[in-house]
Amino acid sequence: MFFERPDSGEVAILVQVGMEDLQDEADAREFEELAISAGAVPAELVVASRRLTTPRYLIGTGKLEEVAAAIALHGAELVLFNHTLTPSQERNLEKELKCRVLDRTGLILDIFAQRARSHEGKLQVGLAQLRHASTRLVRGWTHLDRQKGGIGLRGAGETQLEIDQRLIGVRIKAINKSLEKVRSQREQGRRSRKRAEVPTVSLVGYTNAGKSSLFNRLCGEHIYVANQLFATLDSTLRKIRIPNFGDAILADTVGFIRALPHQLVDAFRATLEETVEASLLLHVVDCNNEERLQLMEEVNKVLEEIEASDIPTLIVFNKTDLLETPFNGVERDERGKPVRAWVSAHTGAGVEELLGAISELLGEDFIAVNFPLDHGQGRLRSRFYSLGAVIDESTDETGSNCLHLKMQRGDFIRLCREAGLDPAPWLPEIPLPGPSPKNEAPDPLLEQAV
Fold first, then answer.
1. Using CA atoms, how far apart are residues 153 and 141, in angstroms rounded to an integer?
2. 418: closest CA among 393, 449, 386?
3. pTM above 0.70, yes or no
């Protein structure tokens, strides 16, 4: 029901209420990209005034006639509104225009339905669609308003609407039950990673910022990448090796967008939990986008909504190869802490510096130490390896082993004490990372990209 798509694109008329400033123009361009991503062929954009909106159709009757004329002119099959329509407005518009009408939420849900590939993704999209459809059942079956009496016509006394609502409620409960299993499996995986002290680095950002391209560059993977909105829907986890740190889990997540429907935020909470539980967020930004600051703010709003705004974040300006004056490197604050990285996922420029910045941020609570092992400390050696703390192991002339460790200070102290050892002799010799030299972008580039 929810995943069948026509083979060819559908001619669509786009409707935008208000075109009074640059933000409205940016919204209109993004809406056109959404329509194209859904497989529609935008034929015309009709702009209506905010002062003449009506509760019955949202737009005025004059604009309604203009939309109808555009439908007739282009032979359009679909009208898309870049706004949220009430169920009654949607029905009234379809009755007057004699074609299908979708609002912004319905369009985004359709795109998600096309892109869902995994079992979990289909469950999440199906849940969001059912919740959206449950408010739009009224008058969907007016020819069966009441079940009549008589032979063969007696029933439970329910209207067809009540039956549909009940069936949708049953389906929603079944999907929620399945998603609970998914959440349980994800939580079990996160607990295992925490026990192994493997941190998670999550890629977040506006849709089409280049997160999947950067993911492929960092992991050597080949997940689907396209210059379209919501090319990535199903989250992907891969283990990567961070130089001078150790193993980490990199998570590629669904992109954010303006006015992200709440149904999607709720339905994709299982996926977004990878972001909430991350040790570090990489906020990927298309530095070539003129609206980058506004888009960054939209991403921050979603992070606040899912309670992930307090997680340490490194801003990654991507697509530097498209800038007039390319710059690749890491910017630091007055304490020498990395705050912004400039990379090109397409060419690989700046990726090594990015990995170094990730290593520093993940390693703020970590220590590096050369730990000599006696022959009877095989169990302690095994514990260090099980935590993924061993960077290297060497043997000297006498046959004694030395472990080169990178791990959290608290875990090192705990394991030493459990083995009956005093960790103090090694702690003063631990080389703590100090501030690195500042590496700032030239002022003209900062003005251009930030």
1. 16
2. 386
3. no
